[in-house]
Design brief:
- By secondary structure, the chain is an all-alpha fold.
- The protein has eleven helices and no strands.
- Helix 6 packs antiparallel against helix 7.
- It is globular, with a radius of gyration of 26 Å.
- It starts with a helix and ends in an 11-residue tail after the last helix.
Length: about 350
């Protein structure tokens, strides 16, 4: 994922944080332990981060990589600001003060949301324009190539998310995590930690998704990005199955959030294995051995007439081996007698 794509994701997340914050401000709670100084601190942080964001994403020369950590911090502090605002209760601090604080914070977040939306529109428009092929370069397969590129990117993003979950679980015993930072009091504490079985299960799934991501990449690079005599319907079927594999992979990754349902994880793994097998059958249309006409053409060439056939066989062997590995790992991980899924 490029810095620009990461920025678009971060902008979308920050935008959703603003929307959620606006909704949550109108919901009050009885327990109030936060004073005006805490609110002032959060407002100062949001102001400083907004200024940094405006400098990083100025239209003339946007620095996408620099904006990513700023957007992540901004989304976090906006959520904290909304939580802090909710702690001002009419009965505790007075209706006038509580309403004034809510109105002011709403106005600030509304303005911030509009700013983020503008940056998001600009980034999306630039990305869309950059992805449009000139008319002279468009072919009937351009949509397939674009779709394959998007599928490969999304698959890689899902793999990275599972890797992040595993890393967080492995670091959950960090002594710094036990420090009382006050966030638990306002509902911003840590999420449920993985058990040892859940962590092992997640690592097994990560191995599977690493191979499916590699499979998507090779489909995009070796098949969709090269000339082919396959029919449009064959491409349609290939992309449909590739999209289905991506969808099931996403569902499998989502099932890894703690607390996990082992049966649900096994079900998704079983689905993934079936789809991978079907995809392997469809891939044979694109990587079949060189036909007789091609052999005759090579016979007229000064180059090695066996070179292309060897390449075809190597490609087919790679895809077959990859799918076989996926199916083998899925069989081990979905074994009901092995609650964490083996890898042997």
């Amino acid at each position: 994922m490029t810095d620009k794509q990461k920025t678009i994701v971060s902008l979308s997340f920050a935008l959703e944080s603003c929307t959620a914050a606006l909704v949550s401000i109108d919901t009050t709670i009885d327990s109030v332990d936060v004073v005006l100084a805490d609110l002032d601190t959060l407002l100062t942080l949001v102001y400083n981060l907004s200024t940094k964001l405006a400098l990083a994403l100025k239209p003339a020369s946007p620095a996408y990589s620099a904006s990513i950590p700023v957007l992540q911090d901004l989304a976090q502090h906006v959520s904290a600001l909304a939580q802090c605002t909710r702690l001002f209760h009419d009965d505790t601090h007075g209706a006038a003060l509580a309403k004034d604080i809510r109105d002011r914070v709403k106005n600030i977040i509304d303005a911030l949301r509009a700013l983020i939306q503008t940056f998001l529109n600009n980034a999306a428009r630039v990305s869309h324009t950059a992805g449009v092929l000139p008319a002279s370069q468009r072919t009937t397969r351009s949509p397939y190539i674009a779709h394959g590129n998007q599928t490969e990117t999304l698959s890689r993003t899902g793999l990275q998310e599972v890797a992040r979950m595993i890393k967080d679980a492995e670091n959950q015993d960090d002594p710094h995590d036990d420090i009382d930072d006050g966030w638990d009091e306002i509902g911003l504490g840590h999420s449920t930690s993985m058990t040892n079985d859940e962590l092992t299960r997640s690592k097994n799934v990560h191995q599977i998704l690493r191979l499916t991501t590699l499979l998507h990449k090779r489909i995009y690079l070796d098949i969709l990005s090269h000339p082919s005599s396959a029919s449009p319907s064959a491409f349609d079927t290939l992309l449909a199955q590739s999209t289905l594999l991506l969808s099931v992979s996403d569902d499998l990754a989502a099932a890894l959030y703690s607390p996990q349902d082992p049966q649900c994880v096994r079900t998704e793994i079983s689905k993934l294995a079936d789809i991978a097998t079907s995809l392997q059958t469809q891939l044979a249309v694109f990587i079949s051995p060189t036909d007789e006409l091609t052999k005759q053409m090579h016979a007229l060439s000064v180059h090695d007439p066996t070179a292309s056939a060897t390449k075809k066989r190597a490609d087919r062997k790679w895809f077959d081996t990859c799918v076989h590995q996926i199916v083998r790992l899925c069989a081990n991980a979905s074994d009901p007698e092995n609650p964490t899924g083996g890898t042997s």
